[in-house]
Design a protein that fits this description.
It is elongated and about 40 Å long. It has about 70 residues and is mainly alpha-helical.
Length: about 70
């Protein structure tokens, strides 16, 4: 799953809009919409601020071996 899809699901689960998250992060609603729809790229700061606003934690998890084999 892509990061933006995870953010959309988290916003839906919490009943907030990109505009709500933008207000909490200090970004414009337009900028947040661009991040979510993929026309702008996430960076460490935007990831961190958005996750903080949504009460999320970023974890790096190794890909399961079966998924790795499917890619080759």
């Amino acid at each position: 799953m892509r990061f933006s899809e995870s953010i959309k699901k988290a916003m839906d689960a919490r009943g907030v809009t990109p505009t709500d998250v933008a207000k909490q992060t200090g970004y414009t609603p337009q900028y947040l919409h661009c991040l979510i729809d993929g026309s702008r790229r996430w960076n460490e700061t935007t990831l961190s601020k958005t996750c903080d606003a949504l009460g999320l934690e970023i974890k790096l998890v190794p890909i399961k071996k079966s998924k790795m084999e499917a890619k080759t």
